[in-house]
Amino acid sequence: MATPQPERPLTRAELVAWARDLYDDLDFTSVRRWLSEHPGRKAGGYLPVYAPRELLHAAGFLPVGIHGGGDRLEIIRGDAFYQSYICHLPRSVIELAQSGRLDMLSAVLFPSTCDVIRNLSGMWKLLYPDVYVRYIDVPQVPDPAAAAHFWEGELRRLLHDLSEVSGHQPTDDDLRASIAVYNEMREVLRTLYRARQERPWDVPTEELYLLMRAGEVIPPEEFLDRARAYLAAVEAEPHRQRDNSRVVITGAFCEQPPLGLIKSIERAGCYIVDDDFLLGNRFLTREVSLDGDPLRALAEAFVHNELRTSVLYEGDARGKKRLMQQRVSEARADGIIFAAPSFCDPALLDQPMLRSGAEQAGIPCIAFKYSENSGQFQQFREQAGTFSDSIKLWGGA
Amino acid sequence: MSVALKDRSMLLQKEMIASHFARLEKAPENHEPVVYTFVPGNLVELIRSFGALPVLPEINALQSGMRKLSGDYIAEAERLGHSEDVCAYVKCDIGMLRSGNIGPSGTKLPKPDLLLLSYTGCYTFMKWFELLREEYDCPAVFFHVPYQGDGVLEPEHREYMLRQLREQVIPALERATGRAYDEEALRERLALAAEAEDHLVAVLQSAKHKPSPIDGYFGTVYYVGPIFSAFRGTPEGVEYYRALHEEIDERRAAGLGPVTPEGPLNEQRYRLVVEGPPSWTHFRDFWKMFADEGAVVVASTYTKVGGTYDFGFRHNPNDPLGTLADYCSGCYTNLNLPSRIDMLVRYIREYEADGFVINSVKSCNSFSAGQLMILREVEKRTGIPGAFIESDLVDPRYFSTANIKNRLESYFQMLQARREGQHA
Fold first, then answer.
1. Model's pTM, two decimal places?
2. Do residues B100 and B69 touch, judged by C-beta distance below 8 A?
């Protein structure tokens, strides 16, 4: 349902404050409110990175992104489930669940991001037998025909199961309507990313990130309204340009960095002009066709997608080496910050390939590891600040 | 008597492995194609049916660990920018490659003509072969084995694998070897595989006897070596497993236990089930910690990463590609967590175990993520307490002898106290 139109346009500050409240709310109050306002409807969660939200939406669920507790959650029960050498995200997700904060979810989808999230799907089955759990095994094989056939079958099975949970069997038109909404959502996100790339001083990443986090817990239709309002507010309230360096951040597609880390990088003199935060919301790079069978269309969109990421097999032998060069060029960036969560297999195993490609192309790089609950940002600020200064002093040499 | 038979199987294995690595070294000059692949979901019968030689990087890495070479290889990889947080097998392999690519037997490993990325139960495999593809600049083919998220092989997943085998894997092998697919040759190899698997299962299940004639973990990692690597579907493999089977039968009939690094373990105080891979860098020390306490392992899950034959699966020559799909899907790390728990519980009951130990290795999230929950669930369902220890596959920095020994000693004391309490 669309948000009632306010009497006057919302200001940037109001929009950011609204998004921050949603980001801070680890009790998912907005989701619970939505459920109470929509009797009989369900909420369905998904973990990073890619889950077909369109299917949750079409089956009548409120899709809810589960991104852990960041630095705002004390881990009491979660540590009892994980050894110290496993990343932080699953323990905070378990903490959220074990403390009852996710008890409004009737379904949870676990994408094939890595073995930790994969195994969490089995844990969820044991811990919450009344919740529908599905491991989302995306096609990895580079042959598009086999991949599309497999993925279409997976989507069909998932939709069938979700419909049984929600009690709502969507028609093809319902599916197309959901696909259209998410097409719009991705288009708005691309617009926001383009705006930030062109005028990063006007679209600070801290604000963009909060807006995107809000989009993980509200209906996509509401997000569209808010995102467009934010774009209007950016035009109405421009910021002053600073002499900052332009950087691409990569490696943060699953466990999210604390907001303080993003702020620290920006305040250290770096404009973030491309990133992979919350990558699942713009995973599909092209519009999904509204013609023909909608599930086939979704499958084709995935298989013919242009996104290159650590969670998918790279079929091109030169692909990893070229990737960062291409991203830097498209974003007109000066350098790269490899920011990976500690113990993150996808990001850290990819890093040597990505970094050597970037360095061979003469692109300045730095790397650090974080955890979603990192509390001290001084070292990040100093590292990013030195990096920015060195770029300004010596350029890309 | 048993010594002579034991010697025969050990000698056979030693000869087989030495001859395989010697053949690998000469593969370039003999124009024998070489295919790299992984242990879980390995398609070795198919590879061999094309006249190609398999190389399994995990086996090389674990052998490097046992020979105390892995620490230097890992350091080399970390100098090259590989994170200390990631799988030590990968770093060991990259480090070995950058250090001259001398394999565990001291012979040079050939470059692959094809990387057959059987994506079975381990995310890291994908990155590992992406990395190797950069190092070797060679072709790669991806074989996606869907995970058993719901605890079963779904028919459409089997179809997906069959399609990949027909349309991707076989054509890639044809290109790499210059030979056409020969289904008859594959069937013959699958029949040999099934024969060897029968013998292996008999060996594994001999641990149901008391005393157990085998160690189902430390000893069995040697036993599964040929079938997990290059010798499934070969006459040498069948010969080895037949000899081993005879040897174990004889040992069982004589009421003898396994031979540990400290000698025969005939007085068995504790029967254990183990989950997780061994620590290869301290393999003998680790085994000794068990043997010194009279603990024999009667079953383990690690010895099923290359196939879960003891639950009935056999390669089926009458359905050559279908059976490869079934095999891959059923490898241990491709099973979901509830299935893994079921397996452990079944082992504890069927093998009448007194306890179970989880060796949680830092390198392997496929194994390790969720093991604390496995511990609690298995304890809950069996009423038997478990021990949880932490180490690594081949990174010697993560094996703390004193800590692990203390923990195991305390665990055995607890099992003893529990036993005395039950009999009081």
1. 0.97
2. no
